[in-house]
Amino acid sequence: MKRILLLGGTGDALRIARHLGAGHVYSLAGLGKVPDDLACAVRVGGFGGSEGLERYIEDEAITLVIDATHPYAAQISANAARASRAAHVPYWALRRPGWQPKAGDDWRMVADWDELTEALAPFRKPLFTLGREPLAHLDEIPPHQFWMVRCLDPYPDTARARILAARGPFALEGERALFALQAFDVVVSKNSGGSATEAKLDVARERGLPVVMLRRPELPAADREFEQSADLLDALQAAE
């Protein structure tokens, strides 16, 4: 019998977890809400790098690792690939396709925080949708800017930033209302892909706003890669 270790944290991962029975393990880093209605076991917390993950795989007799982490969780994916190879178990990965620019889009691609802040220099009111990372830079906000940072965790506002704790999916009409109320002049985003947070890009296009887009990191090759959770579930069923 296969014993699956599912590395997750995304909505796609939770959809997969809901199809796993007792004996399998759904692992979360610990941010956000921890589901309590699953048949499989739920593990919260890190493993201690690739070596710790390798030990866990061996100690728990895991026979398949599924990486359904966020497309920007490059370190976790690298650890999972390395640990799976060392433990001689298959490594499958859900690789959600990124968004593609459409007619009317003005995307400014950046590789890191330094390039991002340089690209933002001409703007006054950016909406950050990068998660927690901007919270570490609130003391670097230029005098002419006021930031809105949307992330999962509540955090105190500052004189130059408002922190909006919110969890997707975000509907188009809700995004339209937020943009109209706040009058953003630029959107800052990861190229996460999927439909849950895509509406902000639709509204940016409607309003003629540029998007500063953080490029995706390089991810390790997997033994099998899937673009949709449904395809991965079909493969699991076929392998039983």
Report on the architecture of this protein.
The protein contains 7 helices and 12 strands. The longest helix is centred in the middle third of the chain and has 14 residues. Helix 1 runs parallel beside helix 7, helix 2 crosses helix 3 and helix 5 packs across helix 6. It has 2 domains: 116 residues, NAD(P)-binding Rossmann-like Domain (Rossmann fold), CATH 3.40.50; 108 residues, Rossmann fold (3-Layer(aba) Sandwich), CATH 3.40.50. Pfam families: CbiJ. Pathway: Cofactor biosynthesis; adenosylcobalamin biosynthesis.
Task: Looking at this protein, list some descriptive labels.
240 residues, alpha/beta, Rossmann fold, 2 domains, six-stranded parallel sheet, 7 helices, 21% strand, elongated
Write the layout of secondary structure elements.
Blueprint: E1 4-7, H1 11-17, E2 25-28, E3 41-44, H2 49-59, E4 64-67, H3 74-87, E5 91-94, E6 107-110, H4 113-120, E7 126-129, E8 147-151, E9 161-165, H5 172-182, E10 186-190, H6 199-207, E11 211-214, E12 224-226, H7 229-239
Parallel strand pairs: 1-2, 1-4, 2-3, 4-5, 5-12, 6-11, 7-8, 7-10, 8-9, 10-11
Quick recap:
GO terms for molecular function: precorrin-6A reductase activity. The protein is α/β, with parallel strands linked by helices and 240 residues long.
